[in-house]
Structure formats: C-alpha cells, structure tokens
Specification:
128 residues, mainly alpha, globular
C-alpha cells in the first residue's frame, strides 16, 4: 500500500514540475508542448494511483489492480469524449487542436497504462 502512495506523490511532483517550471521542455529544447504532455500524463497517473490507494484503504478486500483499471478506463473515456467534443465543436484558427493533441498523446498513454496493469496483474495473479 505504501508503494501506491509513494508513486502517487512522485507522479504529482512530476506533473507540477513539468507544467509550471517547464524544466523538461527546456532540457529538450522544446518550450511549447512537451512539458504539458508529460504533466498531463503524470497527472493522470497521479489520479489513478490516488483513487487506487483511497479505495483500497476504505475497502480492504478489493483488488488494487481492478480499482486501477476501472479508474483508468473512466478517466480514458472522459478524456476521449472531451477530445472528440473539442474537435467537433471548436471554430476558428486552431479549431480542435486541444482535442487532437489529447487523442494523439494522452489517450495512448492511458492505453499503455491499461496494458501494463494487465501484464502486472496476470503475472501476480495467484495460480490455480
């Protein structure tokens, strides 16, 4: 359980540093979008780990892998829905750019989290 809280705090710190300080973007000589993508991905991981830690503290008999997967799916559906909404409804010069960037960079990260969680769950699942 302690690992979940430590991972949650680390991902929160990465999100804050990458978005507010632009440190990652300056190291990569890309001051525009890279820190925001890294910050958004770290924030999603923070929310997943925070929900997993909180729910497993409240209900002791629930699987943390299942909680992580459910929270990740809910966040992914919400982000994908907003991205499609943004692409369909925005008008103007940069119409739908936020939604396009979300579909290109953030939704694949959520899928990678789900696949990684599935592989870890399959490996740690008790043998019958």
């Amino acid at each position: 359980m302690r690992k979940i809280w430590i991972g949650s705090l680390i991902s929160l710190m990465v999100a804050i540093v990458s978005v507010s300080g632009n440190l990652v973007g300056k190291m990569l000589n890309d001051n525009m979008i890279t820190p925001y993508i890294i910050g958004a991905n770290a924030a999603i991981l923070f929310l997943d780990l925070l929900l997993t830690g909180a729910v497993t503290q409240i209900w002791k008999n629930v699987s943390p892998y299942r909680v992580f997967a459910i929270s990740n799916i809910v966040i992914g559906i919400g982000i994908a829905s907003y991205a499609v909404y943004d692409i369909k409804t925005d008008h103007g010069f940069l119409a739908g750019i936020i939604g396009s960037l979300m579909l290109a960079f953030i939704v694949p990260f959520i899928v990678v989290l789900l696949v990684a969680e599935l592989l870890i769950w399959e490996r740690k699942k008790p043998k019958k």
